[in-house]
UniProtKB/TrEMBL annotation:
Species, as recorded: Bacteroides eggerthii
Modified residues (4-aspartylphosphate): 205
Pfam families per record: HATPase_c (PF02518), Response_reg (PF00072)
Any coiled-coil regions, as ranges: none
Catalytic activity: ATP + protein L-histidine = ADP + protein N-phospho-L-histidine
Record GO terms (molecular function): ATP binding; phosphorelay sensor kinase activity
UniProtKB keywords: ATP-binding, Kinase, Nucleotide-binding, Phosphoprotein, Transferase, Two-component regulatory system
Enzyme class, first EC level, given as a word: transferase
The protein's name in its UniProt record: histidine kinase
EC number: 2.7.13.3
InterPro entries: CheY-like_superfamily, HATPase_C_sf, HATPase_dom, His_kinase_dom, Sig_transdc_His_kin-like_C, Sig_transdc_resp-reg_receiver
């Protein structure tokens, strides 16, 4: 059981419920245990998911067409991450949704640790006896950007620009072993970092607050000092019009 990963699962599910439930709607959370399992259920009266799109829920970069039309920001990767984290804990996720009525998300996990036979467990007692094993959290809310990996001049540099905290951390974890990584939540902060960090690659979401990925890319390519930097755009908008805009 990884409490941080479990927190990410719940945060994503609750965030979606709150984000896509209009003012005056409701979000309810239920928890129960039965036999050898326990579950959490989140019900909302939000916009729902079109029935023809529900099979795509756990695919990379999927976002419902009704969400895109609302101009709500998001990467389209949240549920894919949730699905992978739930499977990592040997759990399952069920989603029932009706467009314009709401959505019910239920996640279920087995009790105990026997199903995680290959995992290494650290008990609360061990953490109390060896506090040096705990990585202290650092408040970076006032910082203009978040530096993740230790600088190694032999490694290439990547800047990750993503407003979703969990996805940004996921991407950092994917690349930090082989690259120098810095990350930030929007395009405005990215421009500050680029001038100091001089990345070899920028990976950016498109739909972000402050400055979108499209706008960031246009500024980079229009600036003589930065135009050589390749930009990789992540988006849930996969139609031809949006791909051409990205180009």
């Amino acid at each position: 059981f990884d409490s941080d990963k479990m927190g990410s699962i719940l945060k994503n599910i609750l965030s979606n419920a709150l984000k896509y439930t209009p003012e005056g709607g409701s979000v309810h959370i239920y928890a129960c245990e039965e036999g050898n399992s326990w579950s959490i259920e989140v019900r909302d009266t939000g916009i729902g998911i079109p029935s023809c799109e529900q099979k795509k829920l756990f695919k990379n970069y999927f976002r419902g067409s009704n969400v895109i039309n609302l101009k709500v920001t998001g990467s389209g990767i949240g549920l894919m991450l949730v699905y992978k984290l739930i499977k990592l804990h040997k759990g399952r996720i069920q989603i029932q949704s009706t467009e314009h009525q709401g959505t019910c998300v239920q996640i279920t996990f087995p009790k105990g640790n026997s199903h995680l036979h290959k995992a290494k467990f650290i008990s609360p007692k061990t953490l109390d006896e060896h506090p040096e094993t705990i990585i202290p959290s650092k408040d970076t809310s006032e910082a203009p950007f978040m530096e993740i990996s230790q600088e190694n001049s032999s490694l290439q540099r990547i800047l990750i620009v993503e407003d979703n905290d969990d996805l940004r951390n996921y991407l950092v974890d994917m690349f930090k072993a082989g690259y120098n990584i810095q990350s930030c939540p929007n395009g405005k902060e990215a421009l500050i970092i680029i001038r100091e960090f001089n990345p070899d690659l920028v990976i950016s979401d498109i739909m972000m607050p402050e400055m979108t990925g499209d706008e960031l890319c246009s500024i980079i390519k229009g600036n003589l000092e930065m135009s050589h930097i390749p930009v990789l755009l992540l988006t849930a908008l996969g139609d031809e019009k949006n791909m051409l805009e990205g180009l």
